[in-house]
Protein backbone atom coordinates (compact mmCIF):
# COMPACT_ATOMS: atom_id res chain seq x y z
CA UNK A 1 0.00 0.00 0.00
CA UNK A 2 2.80 2.47 0.94
CA UNK A 3 4.61 1.95 -2.37
CA UNK A 4 1.40 2.44 -4.33
CA UNK A 5 0.62 5.75 -2.56
CA UNK A 6 4.18 7.04 -3.10
CA UNK A 7 3.98 6.07 -6.75
CA UNK A 8 0.71 8.00 -7.19
CA UNK A 9 2.26 11.07 -5.52
CA UNK A 10 5.33 10.85 -7.79
CA UNK A 11 3.11 10.64 -10.87
CA UNK A 12 1.00 13.57 -9.73
CA UNK A 13 -2.08 11.38 -9.37
CA UNK A 14 -2.37 12.09 -5.63
CA UNK A 15 -1.59 15.23 -3.64
CA UNK A 16 0.67 15.21 -0.61
CA UNK A 17 -2.34 16.06 1.55
CA UNK A 18 -4.32 13.12 0.16
CA UNK A 19 -1.34 10.83 0.74
CA UNK A 20 -1.05 12.04 4.32
CA UNK A 21 -4.73 11.24 4.88
CA UNK A 22 -4.32 7.78 3.35
CA UNK A 23 -1.33 7.01 5.55
CA UNK A 24 -2.88 8.27 8.80
CA UNK A 25 -3.07 5.38 11.26
CA UNK A 26 -6.06 6.72 13.19
CA UNK A 27 -8.72 9.41 13.08
CA UNK A 28 -9.06 11.62 16.16
CA UNK A 29 -12.70 12.38 16.98
CA UNK A 30 -11.84 13.98 20.30
CA UNK A 31 -13.61 11.40 22.46
CA UNK A 32 -12.22 8.49 20.41
CA UNK A 33 -9.31 7.67 18.12
CA UNK A 34 -10.69 5.43 15.36
CA UNK A 35 -8.07 2.86 14.31
CA UNK A 36 -8.42 2.61 10.52
CA UNK A 37 -5.28 0.48 10.09
CA UNK A 38 -6.34 -2.36 12.36
CA UNK A 39 -7.51 -4.46 9.42
CA UNK A 40 -4.10 -4.09 7.77
CA UNK A 41 -2.35 -5.16 10.99
CA UNK A 42 -4.73 -7.83 12.22
CA UNK A 43 -6.92 -8.81 9.30
CA UNK A 44 -10.12 -7.39 10.83
CA UNK A 45 -11.34 -3.82 11.37
CA UNK A 46 -11.85 -2.24 14.78
CA UNK A 47 -14.95 -3.40 16.69
CA UNK A 48 -17.07 -0.91 18.63
CA UNK A 49 -17.85 -1.93 22.21
CA UNK A 50 -21.24 -0.28 22.68
CA UNK A 51 -21.59 -0.56 26.44
CA UNK A 52 -20.72 2.74 28.11
CA UNK A 53 -20.82 4.70 24.86
CA UNK A 54 -23.67 7.03 23.96
CA UNK A 55 -25.66 6.49 20.79
CA UNK A 56 -24.17 9.72 19.40
CA UNK A 57 -20.63 8.46 20.01
CA UNK A 58 -21.42 5.15 18.30
CA UNK A 59 -22.94 7.03 15.33
CA UNK A 60 -19.89 9.29 14.97
CA UNK A 61 -17.43 6.39 15.16
CA UNK A 62 -19.52 4.43 12.65
CA UNK A 63 -19.60 7.34 10.20
CA UNK A 64 -15.82 7.62 10.40
CA UNK A 65 -15.56 3.92 9.54
CA UNK A 66 -18.11 4.21 6.73
CA UNK A 67 -15.94 6.82 4.97
CA UNK A 68 -13.13 4.23 4.91
CA UNK A 69 -15.50 1.54 3.61
CA UNK A 70 -14.98 -0.65 6.67
CA UNK A 71 -17.38 -3.30 7.92
CA UNK A 72 -18.79 -2.26 11.31
CA UNK A 73 -19.56 -4.53 14.24
CA UNK A 74 -21.03 -3.00 17.41
CA UNK A 75 -21.32 -5.26 20.47
CA UNK A 76 -23.25 -4.79 23.72
CA UNK A 77 -25.67 -2.17 22.49
CA UNK A 78 -29.09 -2.01 24.13
CA UNK A 79 -32.40 -1.56 22.34
CA UNK A 80 -32.84 2.10 23.32
CA UNK A 81 -29.51 3.03 21.74
CA UNK A 82 -30.28 0.91 18.69
CA UNK A 83 -33.41 2.89 17.91
CA UNK A 84 -31.46 6.17 17.95
CA UNK A 85 -28.56 4.74 15.96
CA UNK A 86 -30.74 3.21 13.25
CA UNK A 87 -32.64 6.45 12.78
CA UNK A 88 -29.33 7.96 11.63
CA UNK A 89 -27.80 4.83 10.10
CA UNK A 90 -30.61 2.53 8.92
CA UNK A 91 -28.10 0.30 7.10
CA UNK A 92 -27.27 -1.37 10.40
CA UNK A 93 -28.69 -4.84 10.95
CA UNK A 94 -29.78 -5.38 14.55
CA UNK A 95 -29.68 -8.75 16.29
CA UNK A 96 -31.77 -8.37 19.42
CA UNK A 97 -30.81 -11.56 21.28
CA UNK A 98 -27.10 -10.80 20.93
CA UNK A 99 -27.47 -7.02 21.45
CA UNK A 100 -25.33 -6.56 18.35
CA UNK A 101 -25.30 -4.28 15.30
CA UNK A 102 -23.59 -5.08 12.00
CA UNK A 103 -23.10 -3.13 8.78
CA UNK A 104 -21.42 -4.56 5.68
CA UNK A 105 -19.50 -1.87 3.78
CA UNK A 106 -17.03 -3.98 1.80
CA UNK A 107 -17.33 -6.53 -0.97
CA UNK A 108 -14.81 -8.79 0.75
CA UNK A 109 -15.62 -12.47 0.64
CA UNK A 110 -13.91 -15.18 2.62
CA UNK A 111 -13.21 -18.51 0.98
CA UNK A 112 -12.51 -21.11 3.64
CA UNK A 113 -13.09 -24.75 4.29
CA UNK A 114 -14.90 -26.01 7.34
CA UNK A 115 -16.89 -24.27 10.03
CA UNK A 116 -16.86 -23.11 13.62
CA UNK A 117 -19.14 -24.96 16.05
CA UNK A 118 -20.99 -22.84 18.59
CA UNK A 119 -21.99 -25.23 21.38
CA UNK A 120 -24.30 -23.80 24.03
CA UNK A 121 -25.39 -25.46 27.27
CA UNK A 122 -28.82 -23.90 27.82
CA UNK A 123 -31.39 -21.52 26.38
CA UNK A 124 -30.55 -19.01 29.13
CA UNK A 125 -27.04 -18.75 27.64
CA UNK A 126 -28.30 -17.81 24.16
CA UNK A 127 -27.40 -14.11 24.34
CA UNK A 128 -23.73 -14.98 24.75
CA UNK A 129 -23.91 -17.81 22.22
CA UNK A 130 -25.50 -15.59 19.58
CA UNK A 131 -22.93 -12.86 20.20
CA UNK A 132 -20.28 -15.49 19.43
CA UNK A 133 -22.08 -16.94 16.41
CA UNK A 134 -22.88 -13.59 14.81
CA UNK A 135 -19.35 -12.30 15.41
CA UNK A 136 -17.87 -15.27 13.54
CA UNK A 137 -20.41 -14.84 10.74
CA UNK A 138 -19.57 -11.13 10.50
CA UNK A 139 -16.01 -12.21 9.68
CA UNK A 140 -17.33 -14.41 6.89
CA UNK A 141 -16.91 -17.78 8.60
CA UNK A 142 -19.52 -20.53 8.40
CA UNK A 143 -21.04 -21.28 11.79
CA UNK A 144 -23.07 -24.26 12.94
CA UNK A 145 -25.11 -23.87 16.11
CA UNK A 146 -25.64 -26.65 18.67
CA UNK A 147 -27.88 -25.20 21.36
CA UNK A 148 -29.39 -26.56 24.58
CA UNK A 149 -26.98 -29.50 24.81
CA UNK A 150 -25.85 -29.06 28.43
CA UNK A 151 -24.73 -31.78 30.80
CA UNK A 152 -28.12 -32.01 32.55
CA UNK A 153 -29.26 -34.02 29.51
CA UNK A 154 -25.99 -35.13 27.99
CA UNK A 155 -27.68 -37.40 25.43
CA UNK A 156 -28.63 -34.19 23.59
CA UNK A 157 -24.93 -33.46 23.05
CA UNK A 158 -24.22 -36.98 21.83
CA UNK A 159 -26.91 -36.59 19.18
CA UNK A 160 -24.71 -33.92 17.53
CA UNK A 161 -21.20 -34.97 18.48
CA UNK A 162 -20.19 -36.31 15.06
CA UNK A 163 -20.95 -32.96 13.42
CA UNK A 164 -19.22 -31.04 16.22
CA UNK A 165 -16.11 -33.21 15.75
CA UNK A 166 -15.84 -32.06 12.13
CA UNK A 167 -15.51 -28.38 13.10
CA UNK A 168 -12.19 -26.53 12.86
CA UNK A 169 -12.70 -25.14 16.38
CA UNK A 170 -15.56 -25.05 18.88
CA UNK A 171 -16.75 -22.19 21.06
CA UNK A 172 -18.43 -23.81 24.06
CA UNK A 173 -20.68 -21.63 26.22
CA UNK A 174 -22.07 -22.58 29.63
CA UNK A 175 -23.25 -21.07 32.90
CA UNK A 176 -24.19 -22.75 36.20
CA UNK A 177 -21.23 -25.04 37.04
CA UNK A 178 -19.71 -24.65 33.56
CA UNK A 179 -18.93 -28.33 32.92
CA UNK A 180 -19.79 -28.51 29.21
CA UNK A 181 -16.38 -27.46 27.78
CA UNK A 182 -14.68 -30.27 29.74
CA UNK A 183 -17.10 -32.81 28.32
CA UNK A 184 -16.72 -31.55 24.73
CA UNK A 185 -12.95 -31.26 25.20
CA UNK A 186 -12.76 -34.96 25.98
CA UNK A 187 -14.66 -35.89 22.81
CA UNK A 188 -13.05 -33.82 20.04
CA UNK A 189 -9.56 -33.37 18.56
CA UNK A 190 -9.73 -29.64 17.78
CA UNK A 191 -9.25 -26.54 20.00
CA UNK A 192 -11.99 -25.48 22.40
CA UNK A 193 -12.66 -21.87 23.36
CA UNK A 194 -14.65 -21.94 26.59
CA UNK A 195 -16.97 -19.05 27.48
CA UNK A 196 -18.45 -18.94 30.99
CA UNK A 197 -21.73 -17.08 31.41
CA UNK A 198 -23.21 -15.26 34.38
CA UNK A 199 -26.29 -17.53 34.29
CA UNK A 200 -26.93 -19.37 37.56
CA UNK A 201 -28.16 -19.17 41.14
CA UNK A 202 -26.42 -17.34 43.99
CA UNK A 203 -23.34 -19.52 44.46
CA UNK A 204 -22.65 -19.16 40.76
CA UNK A 205 -21.36 -15.69 41.72
CA UNK A 206 -22.38 -14.12 38.39
CA UNK A 207 -20.33 -16.62 36.41
CA UNK A 208 -17.30 -17.01 38.66
CA UNK A 209 -18.05 -20.66 39.43
CA UNK A 210 -18.31 -21.47 35.70
CA UNK A 211 -15.10 -19.55 35.00
CA UNK A 212 -13.16 -21.45 37.69
CA UNK A 213 -14.51 -24.80 36.47
CA UNK A 214 -13.34 -24.04 32.93
CA UNK A 215 -9.92 -22.81 34.10
CA UNK A 216 -9.51 -26.03 36.11
CA UNK A 217 -10.70 -28.36 33.34
CA UNK A 218 -8.91 -31.71 33.18
CA UNK A 219 -9.56 -31.94 29.42
CA UNK A 220 -6.73 -30.81 27.15
CA UNK A 221 -6.95 -28.17 24.43
CA UNK A 222 -9.27 -25.77 26.28
CA UNK A 223 -8.68 -22.02 26.42
CA UNK A 224 -10.95 -19.76 28.47
CA UNK A 225 -12.13 -16.19 27.91
CA UNK A 226 -13.85 -13.85 30.35
CA UNK A 227 -17.38 -14.19 31.70
CA UNK A 228 -20.09 -13.50 29.07
CA UNK A 229 -17.41 -12.68 26.46
CA UNK A 230 -19.00 -14.29 23.42
CA UNK A 231 -17.23 -11.82 21.16
CA UNK A 232 -13.79 -12.69 22.55
CA UNK A 233 -14.43 -16.41 22.26
CA UNK A 234 -15.55 -16.08 18.66
CA UNK A 235 -12.66 -13.78 17.70
CA UNK A 236 -10.13 -16.35 18.95
CA UNK A 237 -11.99 -19.07 17.07
CA UNK A 238 -11.89 -16.99 13.87
CA UNK A 239 -8.11 -16.60 14.20
CA UNK A 240 -7.70 -20.37 14.62
CA UNK A 241 -10.00 -21.04 11.67
CA UNK A 242 -8.06 -18.62 9.46
CA UNK A 243 -4.75 -20.22 10.41
CA UNK A 244 -6.17 -23.65 9.63
CA UNK A 245 -7.14 -22.32 6.20
CA UNK A 246 -3.91 -20.34 5.72
CA UNK A 247 -5.99 -17.25 5.08
CA UNK A 248 -6.58 -13.76 6.44
Automatic annotation (TrEMBL):
Q: Which residues are in coiled coils?
A: none
Tell me where on the tree of life, at the top rank, the source sits: Bacteria
Annotated signal sequence is: none
Q: Which GO-annotated molecular functions does the record name?
A: hydrolase activity
Q: Locate the PurE domain: which residues?
A: 114-246
Task: Write down the Pfam families for this protein, in alphabetical order.
Answer: AIRC
Which GO terms fall under biological process for this protein?
'de novo' IMP biosynthetic process
Fetch the InterPro entries from UniProt. Answer: P2CMN_synthase_LarB (IPR039476), PurE_dom (IPR000031)
Q: What is this protein called?
A: Nickel pincer cofactor biosynthesis protein LarB
Gene name? Answer: larB
Amino acid sequence: MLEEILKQVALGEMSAEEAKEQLATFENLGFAKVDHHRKKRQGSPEVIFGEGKTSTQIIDISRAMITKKEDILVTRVNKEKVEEIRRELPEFQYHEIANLLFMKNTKDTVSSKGYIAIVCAGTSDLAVAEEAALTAEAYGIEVRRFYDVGVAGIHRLFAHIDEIRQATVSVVIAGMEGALPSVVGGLVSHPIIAVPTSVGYGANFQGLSALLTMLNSCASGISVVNIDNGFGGAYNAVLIHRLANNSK
